[in-house]
Amino acid sequence: MNRLFGSVRSRATLGATLVVAVALFVTGAAVLQALRSNLTAEAGTQAEGTARAVASELAARTPYDQLSGLGSKSGPVQVVDEDGNLVAASEDLQRISGTVTDRVEPRRSSPSPSASASPSQSAPAREDDEDEDDEDEDDEDTETPRSQSTPEDEESEPSLAPGETGRQTTFSSGAATMDDDTADYRFAAVDVQTHDRGLLTVSAGAPLAAEHSAVRTALTVMLIGFPLLAALVAGMTWVVTGRALRPVAGIREEMAAITASEDLKRRVPEPGTHDEIARLARTTNETLAALETSVERQRRFVADASHELRSPIASLRTQLEVAAAHPELLDLDGAVEDTVRLQHLAADLLLLARLDAGERPVDARVDLAALAREEAAGRTGVTVDAESAEVAGSRGQLARLLGNLLDNGRRHARETVSVSVRREGDRAVLAVADDGDGVTEADRERIFERFVRLDAARSRDDGGAGLGLALARDVAVRHGGTLTAGAAPSGGALFELRLPLA
């Protein structure tokens, strides 16, 4: 089960199918309810029309046996007097429920002396009628209330004048059996005040067969169509998501191959679309390119570091072996020089490793003017022209940066190296210029690469290991600044360090 729904394709298909299924269920329920309500209201309107037609005939003093609505082709109709007695009913009516009374056989009652006769005045007549109707099969049944109207409806219904039909209609649902045919009906009951028979209530019914048939048909269509529609949505979602995720499978397979082969020159396929997957593929290739560059840079760094360390170590070993065999031939000054050079190289490599690891400089205030004067002291041919400018960072790392720039300037200068510190807006600018041959524009970025020497023929003893400028730029970047190379006014090289003021 976890594997089945462990893919984006499966979850997307399931989610879309569930959403569509819920939407179809809610929509179907609403449609069925609206259909049932509309058809029921239509049947009620038909029943009300029949009831009011019969009420109009009663208001016109039509005898019970001549009422047109009591024919066998009409729906069930009942006429009940104000005492609850059934005085007229449809032909072939065998059973009824949901109306004022469930009687089906008319039982004549004495006409009320007036339209406003009270129930207490008509009670004796009702008792006499019931005594005289001993042969009625429903004689022992309990009479139902005359009207299903609420008390509020009765209070709002004004007194009716003789020959007037009530404006209010009471609706109810029930069933009736006519000529051995039982069906559901919607009943409507209206009151009519007659001239000679008092207040009568007419209940007429309209069949709900059309409503039931329409609802059953709609329900059948929904039960068949909705699952098919949900299955269609599931299939389309499965196909569409499969096509959309096909490039992802290609990217995954290529990444797995790159991981297995460790060949960072390979790239994942980029689809020709402009969607999120295409952007993912491009970003993945950019990441692979950056990773390839980083790994290649690390390999060169390790190789160059090993080569640079091999030279002073081999020289120092040679001198020690000669000294062991011939102590009188020991070059003590050369051994000390090689040891110091080895120590400086190891320190540079350690600082570069810490910078590559993301070590952040300590947050201290450093005055570049004071730092420039300290680093220039003891170095011949170095002049300083500086104004106070405080920056935040590591004093030791900034001192190493400035020391590397001064050492580089002294190696290439003819006579002098000048240092200046000034403010430019929210930046402090430290410039180191020499009067040497300078750096060509094509090499002004290359000199900041690690282990790079522009003069390949220069001996390692005269020059450095090619780490000074690379280390200086890394320190500048870690302090939120920049280090660039340019041309000095005297024609030599100009290095400018820009750092944010503290």
Structural notes for this entry:
This protein has nine helices and 14 strands. Helices cover 47% and strands 18% of the residues. The longest helix is centred in the middle third of the chain and has 53 residues, at 209-261. The two termini are 60 Å apart. The protein is rod-shaped, with a radius of gyration of 53 Å. With 502 residues, it is an alpha+beta fold.
Instruction: Identify low-pLDDT runs.
Output: 109-156, 456-462
The Cα radius of gyration reads: 53 Å
Shape: rod-shaped
**Biggest sheet: strands, sense, closure?**
7 strands, antiparallel
Helix content: 40-55%
Number of helices: 9
Computed structural class:
alpha+beta
List strands and helices in order, with pairings.
Elements: H1 8-59, E1 77-81, E2 86-89, E3 93-97, H2 119-132, H3 151-156, E4 164-165, E5 170-178, E6 181-193, E7 199-207, H4 209-261, H5 276-325, H6 332-356, E8 364-367, H7 368-376, E9 382-386, E10 390-393, H8 395-412, E11 417-424, E12 427-434, H9 468-478, E13 482-487, E14 493-500
Parallel strand pairs: 9-11
Antiparallel strand pairs: 1-2, 1-7, 3-5, 4-6, 5-6, 6-7, 8-10, 11-12, 12-14, 13-14
